[in-house]
């Protein structure tokens, strides 16, 4: 089902189309997507492209459009994925993104711009992708595939650990790094430090292909939280510095760049 308008004129359009793609399978999550651009025709075209791709992917969603950052920020809904034009009137796309991050840190932000000028600023607000206008439909599809997959995976993957004859579920998205001291494992996460006992090799096997890397004999780090690095250490988003073993540096570089491409690459 879709609502639409015709003969769009930026000065008189009272509302913008709302696209709704119904669920294809029982239990499918209805994704909420926002498109924000102060150029009405650009906004409508982008929303329509997203709708066509999501239909092709058979993904249930609702797509809403906004003509300014202020209008988006005042919306009562919470959006899973937000497409933001950067060069809008105050607040511009970057300021809008900063305010969205303050409200909710887990939104997937995708910048759309006719210039590469703001690429590095986009990383400051943890942009998921940076698309250049005119947006290529094949690139848009790849981005939406990754974004929808990320929403499905968010906070879902976990490991089960044992302490004092009790089992505990640890969500991988909430873990910054594991610190190993013999058989003692300190889990450093968003809720503080949790300690239990496990062999490092067993833990490493559990975390294979989960975005973690053993950068040192004593550390397994969550690569999604790496904010920067040099040959000696990795700097995490929370400011913590983790040593990188000299012999593991090249492999670390390959893995962290792979994660960056998957979660925040520039197209």
TrEMBL record:
Modified residues (4-aspartylphosphate): 85
MF terms in GO: DNA binding; phosphorelay response regulator activity
Record-annotated HTH LytTR-type domain positions: 159-258
Cross-referenced Pfam families: LytTR (PF04397), Response_reg (PF00072)
InterPro entries: CheY-like_superfamily, LytR-like, LytTR_DNA-bd_dom, Sig_transdc_resp-reg_receiver
Source organism superkingdom: Bacteria
Response regulatory domain residues: 32-148
Keywords: DNA-binding, Phosphoprotein
UniProt function note: May play the central regulatory role in sporulation. It may be an element of the effector pathway responsible for the activation of sporulation genes in response to nutritional stress. Spo0A may act in concert with spo0H (a sigma factor) to control the expression of some genes that are critical to the sporulation process.
UniProt xrefs under PANTHER family: STAGE 0 SPORULATION PROTEIN A HOMOLOG (PTHR37299:SF1), TRANSCRIPTIONAL REGULATOR-RELATED (PTHR37299)
The protein's name in its UniProt record: Stage 0 sporulation protein A homolog
Native source organism of the sequence: Parablautia muri
